[in-house]
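Go through this:
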Amino acid sequence: MNYNPGYFSRRKLPAKYSAVITPLILSLMMTLIVSLIATVRNLGIHADLPYHWVTAWALSWIIAFPTLLLVLPLVRRIVNSICDTPTR
């Protein structure tokens, strides 16, 4: 039986979705880390930590994701005004 490497590969989303996928992944990762640090710092490590962490994470992500969608275009403009564009 011939092996087709493309058969099991994942399909990718079109590039036009990167403007939403980037802040989605960024907000997920950042809020998970920051909410864990803040929760441990405020409550310490104990049995209820996962519940409090997930609760804090959910609230922070609900705010962070739409905020990133709004501010990322401004951030890109600021970065482009500070940094040179790469040449190929």
